[in-house]
Amino acid sequence: MRRSITGFSNPTVKLLRSLRDKKHRKREGLFLAEGLRLLTDAREAGRLPQMLVMAEKRERHDLLDALEADVIDAGGEVIETSRDILAKITGKDNPQAVAGAFAEWDTSLDTIDRSNSDIWLVAQALRDPGNMGTMLRTCDAVGAGGLILIDDCTDPFSVEAVRASMGAVFTQAIARATWDEFVPWLRSGAGQLVAASLRDSEPYRGAPYSAPCFILVGNESQGLPEAYEAECDLRVTMPMRGKADSLNAAVAGAVLAYEVLAGLEG
Amino acid sequence: MRRSITGFSNPTVKLLRSLRDKKHRKREGLFLAEGLRLLTDAREAGRLPQMLVMAEKRERHDLLDALEADVIDAGGEVIETSRDILAKITGKDNPQAVAGAFAEWDTSLDTIDRSNSDIWLVAQALRDPGNMGTMLRTCDAVGAGGLILIDDCTDPFSVEAVRASMGAVFTQAIARATWDEFVPWLRSGAGQLVAASLRDSEPYRGAPYSAPCFILVGNESQGLPEAYEAECDLRVTMPMRGKADSLNAAVAGAVLAYEVLAGLEG
Fold this sequence. Notes:
The structure is a homodimer.
Chain A: E1 2-4, H1 11-18, H2 22-28, E2 30-34, H3 36-44, E3 51-55, H4 62-73, E4 77-81, H5 83-90, E5 98-103, E6 119-124, H6 129-142, E7 146-150, H7 159-164, H8 168-171, E8 173-177, H9 179-187, E9 192-196, E10 202-203, E11 213-217, H10 226-231, E12 234-237, H11 249-265
Parallel strand pairs in A: 1-4, 3-4, 6-7, 6-11, 7-8, 9-11, 9-12, 10-12
Antiparallel strand pairs in A: 2-5, 3-5
């Protein structure tokens, strides 16, 4: 279906802009992604927006035409509106010419097929949306299967996390679970749980990583609870040559993921 | 000097809160850092705030007492005020009990002594304050000498960058220069310029890194200009197993920095 929206108080505009808040995303089961590049990544990963919102005045683009056709074919809505209304929806002064509202998908642990990849990232109580998106992006780069979110993490479907993921939110498997759900799931199959740790650990470089390797990264300010570290099959230490004893969580995950990648391939 | 401030419209309150804006930081030559941990990191690195602002109602802490005494000894000001005014200054609903206004220091290239470290990070047109702070934090972790900022980078003294640096803004050398200033400076002494690149490059793992190694990271969305890559002594490629062809800038810098660290030590 196609339609045009001209009024700021239109209910669809209100719904779309409400998706910047987690509680509204949860209620509607929808999230926003902005920009032709992200939407094309989504399309290539087999995800189409339920609603595609486009600026009336925009440059023509083959990829946008293709996206539009696919959304219509799939029974979605294509909405044309003004730049001002797009700015209101996205909360940006200079919005991109296109945005999409996607249905959130099932993120239960059952959706994860560990045989899909040798590397998985696992984040515990990750609070920063930028770190969330960056970890998804790192998953993509190292060829990981996806990101498993443990305990109370920031929403992977927030506008900031989606943007920072550079499209990886659409290509990576994402699961959400409590620790008490995750551990039995992990132990029900093959899998090595690895964390960076200062306790009872060995050098991260050349450590005996094995596939499928689950790389566990802790909360930005607290790190991992001791019991979680104790559950790990392998604890490794990265050199810390300075005053501090830790790295940014997304950085630590990435340095470790690249080492695991080299270890498994080498 | 000690004094107490009770009014929101006090000129010192106005000055301090103005430091959240870059143009005011530049005009005043001051920047803000919040929290006892950051301020203690600064003190240990030999940096004391010109003004130390403390909540009237706060828990006593030895480190805060020591900081207070040092600020007074150094001729600085210690200001007591309400939590509400601290919230106004820092722009946070739940401000930390202490904040400091520090004099910005000289960030010209002449302040860099390359013999201080085997590793240096160089960021070109880095725009995100979180990435800036994260790169400073990574510098600390790998024992780098500091961060050299090329062309139009985000301000390393912004509240966000200072916070993300976890204190490394005080321990790491920071220089700002144009590319045309940087290259002659680099070539006036020993130094290998290395960048991640897809062109004419070799695998990053085990590449022939040599000290002092300057690791160049490009802008978040554009990457490095081709001419900048061409100037590099070594171009290396990190595996990209997914759909995307790049990592977050701070992540790429960190993965490379840890590889360089291993290479130089191995």
